[in-house]
Model the fold of this input.
Amino acid sequence: MPQDQNIVLPEDIINLDPEILDAYCSQKGNLFAQGENNKNKVTASKLRNFFSKVASLRTYYRNPGKVDFEKFYSKLNRDITLLKPTLAYAFGRDKDLINFHSETIDLINKTIKSFNKEYMSKKNDHKENKKELNLKFQSLENFFAVLEGFVAYHKFYGGKE
Done:
């Protein structure tokens, strides 16, 4: 995939191709580290501050304990949605976060849409076939992978404090 071509994630991130995911993270990690014409760089500490909130979501996702499927879905859907005000606040304080803010808001919106689709599919499949409800969602796995990729490639491309 050419580096100068802007890579955009598909609307449905459930079946996100790993090569697209990697190329997207690489491109955006570079953008966040280097900025545009030496402007709009994201510091490593700002990236880590946001990622720490995501890491707590990931911990809950991986270890929910005994939880009702509906409550599990509702909590994650709510908490992912509430990452938007966190980003808005950070962007309001530091306009250099424009690229990080817009790319991450886009990712959150696509994740919520895909997560809802996956949830409804699992819920309907459970009703029709009495299958056990699985608490693993590919859309969330991809969401966490993209954000980890942002952090990794930001460091790779020389992101500074």
Remarks:
- The chain has a mean pLDDT of 91.
